[in-house]
Give the backbone structure.
Amino acid sequence: MNRYNNPFPFSDDNKRYHTWNYYLKHKFGNKTAKVPLDAGFSCPNRDGTKGFGGCTYCSAKGSGDSIVARGNLMEQYEQGLSVMQRKWPDCQGIAYFQAFTNTYGPMEKLKQCFSPFIQREDVCAIAIATRADCLEDEKIAYLCELAKEKEVWVELGLQTIHDQTAALINRGHDFSEFRSCVERLASTPLHVCVHLINSLPMETKSQMIESTRIVGSLPIEAVKIHMLHLVKGTQLAKQYEENPFPLLTMEEYVDVVIAQLELLPPEIIIQRLTGDGILSDLLAPFWTTHKVQVLNEIDKAMARRNTWQGKYR
């Protein structure tokens, strides 16, 4: 038990879940942060391969709305890292290919994007946001070669295990395809992080919790959990304006997240528990812009209930 009287083993502070910061600190020795990048990829359900318009919650920037750096990839990285180092002077960087689907393209493009960052001494790892239906064996083999040099994270946008919801949000593939991809990745040196969204249309709290329970039973290393953001201009925001559907309140979100954490194995890293919404682009819910408050409420509620990640696993 640590000095905060915290029963959770993977923690140096009051956090009762396995934070990304804890993992990075123990892996790399000092402050490490992701530097988001836009490599100019597209997505199979935007260009007609699987559909058009993308996932209904996804913005025109392909979930890369927080990327403010401009220029080529190296310029983006250097600008982004310099911002991080103003706050943390000794901060190391992870090159995070965030916008759209970053394995959806020819092998030559993947090599042009990823290989230079493996060679940079000031990059300690790379993280690649992609989809389960865009990881052919050839691409997995290439990423495994990169993993011989540096840590490589593959971030899979699942959002929900429920195929009916996936169809509603136009994900373009089903859970069985996702599971098959995770099983193929399990025998590789690649690290897998799965993205989940709470409060998707028509989903109950029990369905959100079930998604996390099932994902936690798979051979993965990390998850990201966050609240649905209705971003202006997206298909889902337009649907909400025409026919509003229920959204979790902050209090309900805290309850759901704690129930999800209690069912996740303690070894699984929690890379995120809330998203970064841009206020000017956000239609609802506005409480998501108070990121620190949301995290504090989760911490306080877990301590009050004397619970922790994996307690009921």
Q: What stands out?
A: The chain is about 35% helix and 15% strand.
